Structures are given as structure tokens and as C-alpha cells.
Amino acid sequence: MHKGTGMKRFSWFAWLWFMIGAVYFIIPLWGTFVFSLQKQRGVLSFAAYQSAFADPNFWESFLFSNLMALLTIMASLLLIVPTAYWVRLRLPRLRPVVEFITLLPFVIPPIVLVFGFLKSYSQPFTLFGIPLFPSLTSNTLLTNFLLVMGYTVLALPYMYRAVDNGLRAMDVATLTEAAQSLGAGWGTILWRVIMPNLRSALLSGALLTFAIVVGELAIATFLARPAFGPYLALLGNHRAYEPAALAIVSFGLTWLAMGLINLVTRGTQAESIVTGAH
Amino acid sequence: MAFLELSGVRKIFPNASSAAVESFDLAVERGEFISFLGPSGCGKTTTLRMVAGFETPTAGSILMDGRDITTVRPNQRSIGMVFQSYALFPNMTVAGNIGFGMSVAHMPKDEIQQRVREMLALIKLEALGSRYPYQLSGGQQQRVALARALAIRPQLLLLDEPLSALDAKIRVALRTEIRAIQRQLGITTIYVTHDQEEALSLSDRVVVMNQGVVEQVGAPFEIYNFPKTAFVASFVGTLNVVDATVVDPNTGALEVAGQRIYALPPLAGRSAGQTVKLALRPELFSPDSTGLHDENCLTGTVENVIFLGAVVRIHLRVGETLLLMDEFNNPNLSVPALGATIHLYFQRENCLLLVQ
Asked: Which of A134, A211, B198, B208 is the most exposed place for a label (fewest CB within 10 A)?
């Protein structure tokens, strides 16, 4: 009885703090939402949303950022999955070094990073007078490539941790050896054994990367690319209601992404519980 | 020529002070079932992993069917392996797991399906092909792992403590099944275990290992009844290992705690007064209540009597030495009282001198 009462009291306490946190978060959001509906004087309407969506620059920047996000996710996966896998399998001693490198984007601000990029890659790269690759800001395609590389660096801490946690949850060494004994090479092992078992980790990392890329401002601005972040900043300087409407839309997209993560991860957690029962 | 030959195999891990495996020589015949038996850290799994290709020997060579595979990559050895932790691919169904090796080898789909059906029938899990590993019990998962390893028709099957994670009853049932399948397919098999009962009941030959070195290789009967070293004697089965003093090597006379006993003469390479290690199996003693035997009869005091179900184990103090005697249980067995003085008899041929 006492135990039950204690648990109930604890539960109320937890709920209280949850409510305080939720109110702290929801009130500004609600305020932004209500503000976004007040474009027409005295009437609540979706006029700001209609106006924002009617702007061709919105679609151009939104689609551009989405494309960049997809390319960043692909680049991150190509870079991080084999790296994290190999570090866990063969080079566990290097793990602290790799972890440190992946945390650097938290220490180095994007503005510093993009200046470094411009300094290093805006000139043709030569070695002993032999040109190895041209200036990465000389045309749109190469600048987009540089932008994706910048985004990949920013996504490193999130993607690496997501993948590494996913790898930690499985017996990488034994699964690798089992696949090897059945004739599989490294490519097959990564593609058919490791990646499918990292499904939820990869999705988490990908969605976080997506969220970072779509909202990123500094790199895209200094590389002069028509991304969604600079568009939002510009809009905020000239309009009142549309930025609020787009902020709500961004929140909606982020929540949708988080919901998807939950949905996918829930199935995996249930599987782990059943496996643990054996 | 043997099917699998390990010659002078040695393995030292980086930064290790001693070798994990030292001077390992073994010739395995085609279709033979060999067990590596020993305590944790004795090098049995390391040796198995070198055969599988997951570790490279520091020295020595491994030949399979006349081909040197010492440095061949694991995925090019045609060796099936079953792991202690099953190692089934969680993202694949049972059928997907069994068919994996064949799909890697780009076999036609209908052939893969046919072989998967055969394998499912072999492990008697025909109805579970569409299940995922997490939906199976431990025993079922290990059966699937066995089927997966066999599906690729490997030349050699390796099993690394495959039953250790299972409970006792399933372990016994599954080991019988493994042996039956091995006999049915005639596949050369190496089985790693620290469980002597498993090794003795399954194998054609047992390799007993200790601290990276092979202590003895022989048939289970030979390993159990004629252990060559004190380690084998103590590790395989329960054994009394006692210190005895040689009295006369020509007649086989020895002395244990001041009492005269006889081993089969002559005691080659021993001299009078030398202390030797003597091995005596507890089940080869018999109580001598009538005092009929005038030789190989030891007298001692009962210190403890332990009921083990089929066997009753009596602890007998003979001087400084503690001897164990096993008697088969039966309802009419008269168990000696604690503190009673009794006599144990054993035959000369059951008295085994160990290499030290």
C-alpha cells in the first residue's frame, strides 16, 4: 500500500515538472502560431501561410535545401557507417580519437568553418605546381559540393553517435564473422547484414541531419547558395507574419520527423525485449 | 594424407607475454568428429578461429584437403561455423538466414529455396521458415545456425561452444542431434567445448588442451581411462591424484600414506624412493568389508558421504590423503557411517602412473 502511494506521489511530481516544461515550450509556440494567423487585421486567417507558399523563392529555397539535405545524408552515411563499423570491429583504440573529431563541430562555429572552407578551397589546389582540383567556388555545382561537405561536417556529431549507438546494440564482431564464414565479403556484410540492423539508428541520424541542413544559415549564406535558412532570415527582415507561419511549418516538419523516428524505433525496441526474454 | 593438418601452429597476440597456442600439431581424417576440450583460456577457441581464418597463426601451417589455407581469407575457405551466441542475422527470417550463404554465392533462387527446405527438414523446423530469430527459442536458434552453416555444403564444420548458452535438457537433446546430423552428412567437424561430458559423448577423438598446449589426443575411452598427464587426469572426469613413493619398480610396489599397494610392473623409468603421481578413478574402487584381498587394499576413515542420485560418493581419509570412492546407488546399498573405518580395494591395472 505504502509503496503504491509512494509511486503515485512520485508520478504526480514527475507530471508537475513535465507540465511546467511543456507550458514553457508550448506558450511561445502557441503565441507564434496565433501571431501567424493575424496577417489580416481583426480576423484569424491562414493568409500568411498562403502568402508564404505563393512566393516562388520559398519553393526554390525549400526544394534546394531538401535536395542538399538528401545529398548530405548520403555523404554522411557513406563516410560514417564504414568508419564507425571499422572502428568498432578492428580499431577500438581509435574510438576516443574519432569521437573527438566528430565533436569538433560543437566547438568550431559554422562561421569559422565556412571561412576556413573559403580560404582553403576557393583557390585551385596544386601540389608542386600540378593542379589537383579546381577552385570549389568556381561554379555552382562545385559550390554545392562544398556546401554538402560543410553540412556533412555539421551533421558529424549526430550521425556518428546515432550509428555508433546502433552498432553497440548488436554483436558486430560475431555477425561479421558469421557472414564471412558464409562467403560474404566486406561490401555484402555492410550492405546486407550491418546496414539493415542499423535501420532505426540510420533513420534517427538521417532525420537529425535533415533538420540541421534545412535550418542552417551561416554556411549557405557565405557560399551564396539559395538555401532555406538564408531565405527565412531574409524574410524575417522584411515581413512580419510569414516568418512566423514558416516557423510553425518547420516545427510541424520536425515533429513529423520525430514521430517517424518513434514509429520505426518502437518496433525495434519490442524486438529487443522479445530477444532478451530468450 | 589427412583431410585437415595443423603443423607447428603457434599464436601470440600482440602485447601478450605468452603464446595463446604453442606447437599445435593435429591430423584430422575426413568425416571425423574432433573435440577441443579444455578450461577457459587454454587456446581451444583461438585454434578453432585460426582454422576458420579469423586469426592468423604467428607460425605453422594449416592444410585442408592438401591446400594451404593458413592465410586464406575466411570467406574463401568453405568452412561452416556455428557460434556460441547463434549469430543469426536479426533482419532476416529463418529461411533468409539459411539461404544467405547461397545467395552470396549467387546460386539460382529455386535451388536456394530447395536447399533451404532440405535444411529445415534436417533440423525439423519446417514450419518456422518465415519466423525471425527473435521469435525462436535458444535451441531453435542454434538449430537454424547449424542449418545455415551446413547449407553452403562446407568442407569442414566448426562449432564454438554451441550449446553453452542453452539449458541442460536442451543441451543433451541438441548434442545428440548434432552428432546424428554430422554422421548423416559425413562432414568433418571440430567442436570446441569446456564440457568433458559433451566432448566424450560426441567425439571420435578428443584433443585436451591446457595453457595453449595439447596435453593429449585420443579416443574418449582412451582419454578417460588412460590419461597421460596429471592435467588430463584431473580435468577429465573425477579422479584421485595421490602422491605415492616407489618401493620396488620391478614388482610395481608403491606406498601411499604408509600402506603398500601395487601397480602393474615394471614401473619404467622410476627408481626406488622416488615420489610419483598416481591416478585412481573413484568408480574403480570397491569396498572390501570382508578383508578378502591381501593386496591393493587401503584402509581409511569415512569423512563424508554425498548422495549424487545415481552415485553415492564416499570421502575417505587415508593418512594425509583424501580419496573419493563412487558406488552405484541401489535401494539396498548400505552406506558407511561417518567416522567408520573401511577398506577399499582396487586392481593393479586400475592404478595409473602419470607423466609429470
From this structure: A134
Nearest CA to B343 out of B272, B288, B283 is that of B288
Which of B85, B89, B155 would you mutate first to test chain A, the one with the most A CBs within 10 A? B89
Tally of CB atoms within 10 A around B165: 17
The answer to whether the CB atoms of A180 and B149 lie below 8 A apart is: no
CA-CA distances (angstroms) from residue A152 to A134, A147, A233?
A: 21, 9, 22
Map grid coordinates 578450461 to a residue. B39
Yes or no, beta carbons of B101 and A178 under 8 Å apart: no
CB B33 within 8 A of CB B199: no
Residue type, B269: G
What tens-digit pLDDT sequence spans chain A (278 residues)? 444 444 556 688 889 999 999 999 899 999 999 999 998 888 889 999 998 899 899 999 999 999 999 999 999 999 999 999 999 999 999 999 999 999 999 999 899 999 998 888 888 888 888 888 888 888 899 999 999 999 999 999 999 999 999 999 999 999 999 999 999 999 999 999 999 999 888 988 998 898 889 889 999 999 989 999 999 888 888 888 988 998 898 888 878 877 877 776 665 544 443 333 33
- Of B309, B313, B344, B354, nearest in space to B330 by CA: B309
User: Which of B87, B152, B158 lies closest to A174 in CB terms?
Assistant: B87
B56 vs B51: CA distance, rounded Å: 9
Backbone Cα Rg of chain B = 25
Cell of B55: 586469426
Quickly tell me which residue has 548434442 as its cell. Answer: B175
Q: Where are the alpha helices (DSSP H) in chain A?
A: 2-36, 47-54, 56-89, 95-107, 110-121, 140-168, 172-181, 186-188, 195-197, 199-215, 218-222, 228-238, 241-277
User: Any CB–CB contact under 8 A between B87 and chain A?
Assistant: yes
Locate cell 533462387: which residue? B109
pLDDT in tens, B306-317: 998 889 999 999
Amino acid at A190: L
| CB-side neighbour CA atoms (13 Å) of B224 | 16
